[in-house]
What does this fold into?
Amino acid sequence: MQNWRIRKAIPYIGKDHVVLDIGSADGALFKHSEVVRRVAGGVGIDPDAIPATTDKFRMVRGSFPDDLPADQQFGTITLLAVLEHIPTNQQPSFARSCFDRTLPGGRLVITVPGPMVDRIIDVLKTVRVIDGMSVEQHYGFDPSRTIPLFEDAGYTLAAAEKFQLGVNHLYVFAKGSGTPAGRNS
It folds into this structure.
C-alpha cells in the first residue's frame, strides 16, 4: 500500500523541489529511486523517525510544524496517509501551517483512505492481523472534507482522483499563481 501511494504521488512532486514529507515514518519516500532523481532534497518529519542526514535528505524526529524552523518553506509538501490520523479539531490549523510552509507556486500532495479502509481495518483488528497506535488513530475520516479544508487554508485544488479501486484518494493542491501543480511539471 505504501509503495502504491508513493507511486501515485511522484508525478505531482515538483522537479528539483525541496520536499517536506510529513508523517515520513522510515523515510520510504526518499528511498524511492525516482524521488531521489526528481527532487533537489527533502526533509522527512515523524514522531518515530530515526534522525539521519544524507547529502540530499534529512529525517527529523518530531511533529509538524512545531519541530521545524518557523521560516523553512518547501516546493512540495507530501501527506501520504497522514491526514486521517490528525484529530478533526486540529486539522484547520494543520492545513494553515502546510500553506505557510509551501513556497509560492508550490504544491501539496495528499493521499487519504476512503471510509471502506476503516471497515477493513476493523476486520483485521478483530481477527488480530494488525495492531498498533496508528491503527487506533483511524476514526472514519471523510475524504470529502479534504478539499474544503485545504481551500480554506488558501490552496487551490489542482487534481483529485481515486485509486486502488476507489479505496484511496489523491489530492493535489497549488499555492499561488506560480508553477501549476499539474503532472510532470
In short: Residues 2-114+141-174 form a domain with the Rossmann fold fold (CATH 3.40.50.150). The first strand starts at residue 18 and ends at 22.
